[in-house]
Amino acid sequence: MIQMIPLTTIWRCFQGVIPSIIATSDSHGNPNVTYASQVHLIDDGHVALSRQFFNKTSRNLDENPLACAEVHDPVTFQSYRLHLKFLRSEKSGPLFDVMAVRIQAIASVTGMSGVFRLIGADVFEVLRVEKVEGFLTSAPAEPDERMSMTGARSEIRGLQYISEQINRAGDLDSLLDIVLEALGSYFGFEHSMVLLADECTGRLVAMASRGYGTSGVGAEVEPGQGLIGTAASELRVIRLTGIEACLRYGRAVRRESGSATPEIPLPGLPDAQSALVIPLKLCERLIGVLAVEDRDATRFGEWHEAYLEIIGNQIALGIDRMADDGEETAPPRIPIAKPEPADEGRRRTLTYYVNDDCIFIDGEYLIRNVPGRILWKLMREHQRDGRREFTNRELRLDPGLGLPPIKDNLESRLILLRRRLSEKCPDVRIVPVGRGRFALEIDGAVEMVER
Amino acid sequence: MLDERILRVATDGGTSVLVGSADAGAVPACCRGIAVSTDRTLARATVYVPVATSRDVIANAATTKKLAVMITRVVEHVGVQLKGTVEAIRMAGAEEGPFVRRRLQEFAEVLDEIGLPRRVFLSVSHWPAFAVEITVEEVFDQTPGPRAGSSIR
Fold first, then answer.
1. In a domain, A336, yes or no
2. A307 and A210 in one domain?
């Protein structure tokens, strides 16, 4: 017996976790059946299928607009059939952009940018939806622990909670941690990171993370590369569910194309099954990226995407406000002190590689670019003059550091430096001592080498 | 000469089977199949589809005698599509039951490895099944990429 059901009640089937099937026929009734790489739910009466190659399905649809798709609920595995009529293929516009960015992200991760891409978003009218009765021999399974679908907890309360946390943050350093903590405690997002855009290098730099074995602070991402780079360059949210299935498809295209381009690792979890990457932007200016990942293939729904985009805007505003917030209000107090007697038992070597503009500590990479130059300046003045306190203002006025004249993101660069030191060289610390002022604390002896 | 990789997809277990047909008015239908039995010539094939879920596909095949079958090794996405003429449609016999169940089990194992719990796929209806015998007239490489859809026989 055919049971008619509304399309939007089976929204989980369109999350891309279990590949859908599409059958078409040419005008002579010769059938063709294949997998559809993406079935996108538009509304109760329409879906769109991604067209990546000009293939038999495309040719059939040009001759005969009727199609039949079978989609599966990723939680229960129940099957549904959609009887479709092809309306048009969109080559641009909002629908195309939404579908294209997902494919672009997969292509980027699998090293297939430009080769594996969306040609068109094929829009279909849904003539009929039916549950395939008898598809499962037993009652649909309860959601597996590997595949839970978490719904909205309370949208307004969640927004209120995160906003409060952002407003309470005293500085950018704490704001980054507070945001990730709030996303974890309120939404249960256990693996998350914030990257900020560095206008000097054009790259994104990981500033804070939660739920990873190592923090990854300081890791850099090129715009356009991988999930994070694609979300940043396109200024679009990327929500990927069933990542492994997506990547398998992308890898197949890569293999068949004979490409030798290496893959780009996923942001943090090597076995992530779903990811939501949100560009943090003000108007069209990229501030950074918020990325959350999960091992559950269905972790992030459309609801999370829309909702976190709002939260992302709040975070972007907070970051932008605080990034400009580092000027000291009190006159700087810069005592000249004699260098502390070095603890000869703990000697570390800080090496600045001039050509590469990067600093290593005891042979291990520490930091580079502007934060590296800042560290070198502080250390040099400390060793030469015994200085221990510094101001943001004097850093801004030092042309040798290469800070951009406007929107210099000095606060975020200092946070990055502080966090990298805390991880790699806790004997050297940068400690805020007032608004726009900080102290350099050093335990033991540090040898400085310039090469 | 068919590519060994394609031949193995068509003849080995652990693969997904999709079946498509169209009615006399060229309205397409599809369903999941459970198993395909063929040899290395790919001249003929028997496609097993669950009775419970294949009503339209079987009705069309009985009418138009045309069937499309896509077989895919889902981990590598290597796929082949067989198209041919339906010679017979019959209920699968008891002696074919173990083969159909083995194929179901083999694919369930593959899916379990890539994240779909084994027990979920094993709950898919598979018996009683129709056995659709076809003469294979065309073979297409269905692996995603630049050669997707190209005729290989």
1. no
2. yes
d(CA A420, CA A371): 10
Q: Residue A141: which pLDDT band, with cuts at 50, 70 and 90? A: low
Which amino acid, one-letter code, is at A216? G
Measured between CB atoms, does B68 come within 8 Å of chain A? yes
The span from the CA of A416 to the CA of A408, in Å, is 14
Q: Do residues A214 and A308 both lie within one domain?
A: yes
Distance, CA of A238 to CA of A305 (rounded, Å): 8
d(CA B20, CA A174): 57
A252 vs A258: CA distance, rounded Å: 10
B77 to A248: CB separation less than 8 angstroms, yes or no: yes
* Count of beta carbons in the 10 Å neighbourhood of residue B59: 14
Given an 8 Å threshold on Cβ–Cβ distance, is B144 in contact with A18? no
- The beta strands (E) that lie in A344-412 are given as 347-353, 358-361, 364-368, 389-391
User: A311 and A175, same structural domain?
Assistant: yes
Tens of pLDDT, residue by residue over A369-414, are 899 999 999 999 999 988 899 998 899 889 888 888 777 788 889 9
Q: How many Å lie between the alpha carbon of A71 and the closest alpha carbon of chain B?
A: 10
The verdict on residue A330 lying in a domain is no
**Is the peptide bond preceding residue B98 cis, with omega within 30 degrees of 0?**
no
Structure confidence at residue B132 (pLDDT): 97
- Please report residues of A whose CB lies closer than 8 A to that of B142: 34
Q: Is the pLDDT of residue B101 over 80?
A: yes
For chain B, the 3-state helix, strand and coil shares in percent, each to the nearest 5, are: 30, 40, 30
Q: Is A82 helix (H, G, I), strand (E, B) or coil?
A: strand
Name the DSSP letter for residue A19.
-
Q: Are residues A312 and A180 in the same domain?
A: yes
- Residues of the domain holding A195: 155-323
Counting the structural domains of chain A, the total is: 3
- Residues of chain A with Cβ-Cβ distance to B114 below 8 Å are 244-245, 248
- Whether residues A233 and A363 share a domain: the answer is no
Q: Complex ipTM, two decimals?
A: 0.95
Question: Quick check: B36 pLDDT over 80?
Answer: yes
Rounded to the nearest angstrom, the gap between the alpha carbon of residue B59 and the centroid of all alpha carbons in its chain is 17
Q: What is the mean pLDDT of chain A?
A: 83
Best residue of B5, B9, B31, B54 to probe chain A, by most A CBs closer than 10 Å: B31
A324 CA to centre of own chain: 24
d(CA B10, CA B46): 11
List of chain A residues whose C-beta atoms are within 8 Å of the C-beta of residue B72: 35
| Partner A contacted by B74 (CB < 8 A) | yes
Contacts of B17 by beta carbon, 8 Å cutoff, 6+ apart: B32, B33, B34, B35, B36, B47, B48, B69, B70, B71
